[in-house]
Amino acid sequence: MSLQVELEQHRNVLIVRLRGELDHHTADVVRFKMEDAILRGRCDHVVLSLKELNFMDSSGLGVILGRYKLVKSRGGKMVVCDAQASVKRLFELSGLFKILSLYESERSALAGLEVVS
Amino acid sequence: MTMTGHNFMKLSFAARSENEGFARVAVAAFVSQLDPTMEQLDEIKTVVSEAVTNAIIHGYDSHPEGVVTLEASIDGDLFALSVKDEGRGIEDLELARQPLYTSRPELERSGMGFTIMENFMDEFEAQSEPAGGTRLTMKKRIESKKALYN
Description:
Number of domains of chain A: 1
Helix content of chain B: 25-40%
Shape of chain A: globular
Order of helices and strands of chain A: EEHEEHEHEH
Distance between the termini of chain B: 7 Å
Oligomer: heterodimer
Strand order of the largest sheet of chain B: 1-2-3-5-4
Strand content of chain B: 25-35%
Radius of gyration of chain A: 13 Å
Number of helices of chain B: 5
Helix content of chain A: 40-55%
Number of domains of chain B: 1
Mean pLDDT of chain A: 94
Protein backbone atom coordinates (compact mmCIF):
# COMPACT_ATOMS: atom_id res chain seq x y z
CA MET A 1 0.00 0.00 0.00
CA SER A 2 1.07 3.55 -0.64
CA LEU A 3 0.24 4.64 2.92
CA GLN A 4 1.29 3.15 6.23
CA VAL A 5 -0.33 4.02 9.54
CA GLU A 6 1.64 3.35 12.72
CA LEU A 7 -0.08 3.79 16.06
CA GLU A 8 1.64 4.12 19.41
CA GLN A 9 0.12 4.80 22.77
CA HIS A 10 2.07 7.08 25.05
CA ARG A 11 0.25 7.43 28.39
CA ASN A 12 -3.06 9.07 27.47
CA VAL A 13 -1.83 10.21 24.05
CA LEU A 14 -2.22 8.32 20.77
CA ILE A 15 0.68 8.97 18.38
CA VAL A 16 -0.30 8.42 14.74
CA ARG A 17 2.59 8.24 12.27
CA LEU A 18 1.62 8.47 8.62
CA ARG A 19 4.11 7.34 5.97
CA GLY A 20 3.65 7.68 2.23
CA GLU A 21 0.77 9.33 0.39
CA LEU A 22 -2.55 10.41 1.88
CA ASP A 23 -5.24 10.88 -0.75
CA HIS A 24 -8.85 9.83 -1.36
CA HIS A 25 -7.71 6.25 -2.00
CA THR A 26 -5.79 5.90 1.27
CA ALA A 27 -8.02 8.12 3.46
CA ASP A 28 -10.29 5.22 4.50
CA VAL A 29 -7.40 3.30 6.09
CA VAL A 30 -6.50 6.34 8.19
CA ARG A 31 -10.15 6.90 9.13
CA PHE A 32 -10.74 3.30 10.25
CA LYS A 33 -7.46 2.81 12.10
CA MET A 34 -7.66 6.10 13.98
CA GLU A 35 -11.37 5.76 14.74
CA ASP A 36 -10.81 2.28 16.14
CA ALA A 37 -7.84 3.33 18.29
CA ILE A 38 -9.58 6.46 19.60
CA LEU A 39 -12.85 4.70 20.47
CA ARG A 40 -11.31 1.54 21.97
CA GLY A 41 -8.18 2.97 23.54
CA ARG A 42 -7.67 5.01 26.63
CA CYS A 43 -6.26 8.02 24.83
CA ASP A 44 -7.47 11.54 25.43
CA HIS A 45 -5.24 13.30 22.91
CA VAL A 46 -3.78 12.61 19.47
CA VAL A 47 -0.43 13.57 17.96
CA LEU A 48 -0.34 13.37 14.15
CA SER A 49 3.29 12.75 13.27
CA LEU A 50 3.86 13.57 9.60
CA LYS A 51 7.62 13.49 9.04
CA GLU A 52 7.36 10.78 6.39
CA LEU A 53 4.10 11.88 4.82
CA ASN A 54 5.33 12.75 1.33
CA PHE A 55 2.03 13.71 -0.23
CA MET A 56 -1.35 14.92 0.94
CA ASP A 57 -4.33 16.49 -0.85
CA SER A 58 -7.70 17.84 0.26
CA SER A 59 -8.98 14.30 0.94
CA GLY A 60 -6.30 14.16 3.63
CA LEU A 61 -7.52 17.44 5.08
CA GLY A 62 -11.04 15.97 5.21
CA VAL A 63 -10.05 12.83 7.10
CA ILE A 64 -7.89 14.81 9.55
CA LEU A 65 -10.69 17.31 10.18
CA GLY A 66 -13.11 14.42 10.79
CA ARG A 67 -10.81 12.84 13.43
CA TYR A 68 -10.20 16.25 15.01
CA LYS A 69 -13.95 16.60 15.55
CA LEU A 70 -14.11 13.14 17.15
CA VAL A 71 -11.20 13.84 19.52
CA LYS A 72 -12.62 17.24 20.43
CA SER A 73 -16.09 15.82 21.09
CA ARG A 74 -14.49 13.50 23.65
CA GLY A 75 -12.79 16.42 25.36
CA GLY A 76 -9.31 15.80 23.95
CA LYS A 77 -6.83 17.75 21.84
CA MET A 78 -5.24 16.92 18.53
CA VAL A 79 -1.90 18.37 17.41
CA VAL A 80 0.37 17.97 14.38
CA CYS A 81 4.15 17.62 14.31
CA ASP A 82 7.02 17.37 11.84
CA ALA A 83 5.02 18.17 8.69
CA GLN A 84 6.87 18.58 5.38
CA ALA A 85 6.65 21.91 3.55
CA SER A 86 4.03 20.80 1.00
CA VAL A 87 1.80 19.31 3.71
CA LYS A 88 2.23 22.39 5.89
CA ARG A 89 1.16 24.59 2.99
CA LEU A 90 -2.17 22.75 2.64
CA PHE A 91 -2.85 23.11 6.36
CA GLU A 92 -2.15 26.84 6.04
CA LEU A 93 -4.29 27.27 2.92
CA SER A 94 -7.25 25.52 4.54
CA GLY A 95 -6.94 27.36 7.86
CA LEU A 96 -6.50 24.08 9.76
CA PHE A 97 -3.65 25.55 11.82
CA LYS A 98 -6.27 27.76 13.46
CA ILE A 99 -7.56 24.68 15.26
CA LEU A 100 -4.52 22.35 15.21
CA SER A 101 -1.24 23.40 16.83
CA LEU A 102 1.95 22.57 14.96
CA TYR A 103 5.03 21.27 16.78
CA GLU A 104 8.57 20.63 15.56
CA SER A 105 8.83 17.08 16.87
CA GLU A 106 6.89 14.32 18.62
CA ARG A 107 8.74 15.17 21.81
CA SER A 108 7.69 18.82 21.80
CA ALA A 109 4.13 17.82 20.83
CA LEU A 110 3.94 15.44 23.80
CA ALA A 111 5.40 18.08 26.08
CA GLY A 112 2.81 20.57 24.82
CA LEU A 113 -0.06 18.15 25.43
CA GLU A 114 1.04 17.12 28.90
CA VAL A 115 0.64 20.70 29.98
CA VAL A 116 -3.05 20.62 29.07
CA SER A 117 -3.85 17.08 30.27
CA MET B 1 19.88 26.64 -23.55
CA THR B 2 17.41 24.19 -24.97
CA MET B 3 13.96 25.49 -25.83
CA THR B 4 11.11 23.10 -25.24
CA GLY B 5 8.70 23.04 -28.18
CA HIS B 6 5.18 21.70 -28.25
CA ASN B 7 4.61 18.40 -26.54
CA PHE B 8 1.47 16.66 -25.33
CA MET B 9 0.12 13.52 -23.75
CA LYS B 10 -3.32 12.00 -23.25
CA LEU B 11 -4.39 9.29 -20.83
CA SER B 12 -7.75 7.63 -20.21
CA PHE B 13 -8.29 5.42 -17.21
CA ALA B 14 -10.99 3.82 -15.06
CA ALA B 15 -12.55 6.04 -12.40
CA ARG B 16 -11.01 4.01 -9.58
CA SER B 17 -9.32 5.60 -6.59
CA GLU B 18 -6.22 3.42 -7.17
CA ASN B 19 -5.60 5.52 -10.29
CA GLU B 20 -5.27 8.81 -8.39
CA GLY B 21 -1.66 8.00 -7.51
CA PHE B 22 -1.00 6.75 -11.04
CA ALA B 23 -2.31 10.00 -12.54
CA ARG B 24 -0.10 12.11 -10.22
CA VAL B 25 3.03 10.17 -11.11
CA ALA B 26 2.26 10.18 -14.85
CA VAL B 27 1.78 13.95 -14.99
CA ALA B 28 4.79 14.60 -12.73
CA ALA B 29 6.98 12.51 -15.06
CA PHE B 30 5.65 14.39 -18.11
CA VAL B 31 6.16 17.86 -16.65
CA SER B 32 9.64 17.03 -15.33
CA GLN B 33 11.05 17.84 -18.80
CA LEU B 34 10.48 21.52 -17.88
CA ASP B 35 12.76 21.03 -14.87
CA PRO B 36 10.28 22.33 -12.28
CA THR B 37 11.23 22.99 -8.66
CA MET B 38 10.15 20.51 -5.98
CA GLU B 39 7.50 23.01 -4.88
CA GLN B 40 6.07 23.32 -8.40
CA LEU B 41 6.07 19.54 -8.79
CA ASP B 42 4.20 19.16 -5.48
CA GLU B 43 1.66 21.75 -6.61
CA ILE B 44 1.05 19.96 -9.90
CA LYS B 45 0.73 16.54 -8.24
CA THR B 46 -1.76 18.03 -5.78
CA VAL B 47 -3.97 19.61 -8.47
CA VAL B 48 -3.96 16.37 -10.51
CA SER B 49 -5.06 14.53 -7.39
CA GLU B 50 -7.83 17.05 -6.70
CA ALA B 51 -9.16 17.03 -10.27
CA VAL B 52 -9.08 13.23 -10.67
CA THR B 53 -10.65 12.70 -7.24
CA ASN B 54 -13.44 15.16 -8.14
CA ALA B 55 -14.14 13.24 -11.36
CA ILE B 56 -14.29 9.93 -9.48
CA ILE B 57 -16.37 11.04 -6.49
CA HIS B 58 -18.56 13.80 -7.89
CA GLY B 59 -18.62 12.99 -11.62
CA TYR B 60 -19.12 9.25 -11.36
CA ASP B 61 -20.35 8.83 -7.78
CA SER B 62 -17.47 6.32 -7.33
CA HIS B 63 -18.76 3.99 -10.07
CA PRO B 64 -15.57 2.46 -11.51
CA GLU B 65 -17.00 2.00 -15.02
CA GLY B 66 -16.61 5.76 -15.57
CA VAL B 67 -13.66 6.95 -17.62
CA VAL B 68 -11.41 9.88 -16.65
CA THR B 69 -9.43 11.53 -19.44
CA LEU B 70 -6.36 13.53 -18.62
CA GLU B 71 -4.52 15.67 -21.15
CA ALA B 72 -1.35 17.62 -20.57
CA SER B 73 0.70 19.79 -22.88
CA ILE B 74 3.83 21.88 -22.86
CA ASP B 75 4.34 24.96 -25.02
CA GLY B 76 7.62 26.65 -24.26
CA ASP B 77 7.47 27.15 -20.49
CA LEU B 78 3.66 26.89 -20.32
CA PHE B 79 2.22 23.71 -18.86
CA ALA B 80 -1.47 23.02 -19.47
CA LEU B 81 -3.61 20.32 -17.92
CA SER B 82 -7.16 19.22 -18.54
CA VAL B 83 -9.12 16.60 -16.61
CA LYS B 84 -12.43 15.48 -18.05
CA ASP B 85 -15.23 13.16 -17.04
CA GLU B 86 -18.54 12.27 -18.66
CA GLY B 87 -20.39 12.05 -15.39
CA ARG B 88 -23.25 13.85 -13.76
CA GLY B 89 -21.81 17.37 -14.02
CA ILE B 90 -21.84 20.20 -11.50
CA GLU B 91 -25.10 22.12 -11.15
CA ASP B 92 -23.76 25.29 -9.57
CA LEU B 93 -20.13 26.00 -10.44
CA GLU B 94 -20.01 29.22 -8.42
CA LEU B 95 -21.10 27.37 -5.30
CA ALA B 96 -18.65 24.52 -5.97
CA ARG B 97 -15.77 27.02 -6.09
CA GLN B 98 -16.50 28.43 -2.63
CA PRO B 99 -13.83 27.43 -0.10
CA LEU B 100 -15.04 24.73 2.32
CA TYR B 101 -18.20 24.06 0.27
CA THR B 102 -18.85 20.38 -0.37
CA SER B 103 -21.84 18.66 -1.94
CA ARG B 104 -20.91 15.46 -0.09
CA PRO B 105 -20.33 16.28 3.60
CA GLU B 106 -21.14 12.66 4.53
CA LEU B 107 -17.95 11.62 2.70
CA GLU B 108 -15.78 13.89 4.88
CA ARG B 109 -14.80 16.04 1.94
CA SER B 110 -12.94 19.16 3.05
CA GLY B 111 -14.40 21.34 0.30
CA MET B 112 -10.92 22.66 -0.51
CA GLY B 113 -10.33 21.02 -3.90
CA PHE B 114 -11.26 23.98 -6.13
CA THR B 115 -9.50 26.44 -3.82
CA ILE B 116 -6.30 24.39 -4.02
CA MET B 117 -6.46 24.14 -7.82
CA GLU B 118 -7.04 27.90 -8.14
CA ASN B 119 -4.17 28.66 -5.75
CA PHE B 120 -1.59 26.26 -7.15
CA MET B 121 -2.11 27.04 -10.85
CA ASP B 122 -1.89 30.36 -12.72
CA GLU B 123 -5.13 29.84 -14.62
CA PHE B 124 -8.12 27.69 -13.75
CA GLU B 125 -11.33 27.13 -15.65
CA ALA B 126 -14.25 24.78 -15.01
CA GLN B 127 -16.86 23.81 -17.58
CA SER B 128 -19.74 21.60 -16.63
CA GLU B 129 -23.24 20.63 -17.69
CA PRO B 130 -25.69 18.68 -15.60
CA ALA B 131 -25.56 15.08 -16.93
CA GLY B 132 -22.98 16.19 -19.50
CA GLY B 133 -19.76 15.84 -17.54
CA THR B 134 -17.11 18.23 -16.31
CA ARG B 135 -13.86 19.51 -17.74
CA LEU B 136 -11.30 21.32 -15.62
CA THR B 137 -8.60 23.21 -17.52
CA MET B 138 -5.54 24.68 -15.83
CA LYS B 139 -2.31 26.39 -16.82
CA LYS B 140 0.94 27.09 -15.06
CA ARG B 141 4.13 28.74 -16.21
CA ILE B 142 7.26 26.82 -15.26
CA GLU B 143 10.32 29.04 -15.60
CA SER B 144 13.10 26.59 -16.22
CA LYS B 145 15.87 26.49 -13.63
CA LYS B 146 18.24 25.99 -16.57
CA ALA B 147 17.19 29.38 -17.94
CA LEU B 148 18.21 30.99 -14.65
CA TYR B 149 21.71 29.54 -14.86
CA ASN B 150 22.30 30.60 -18.48
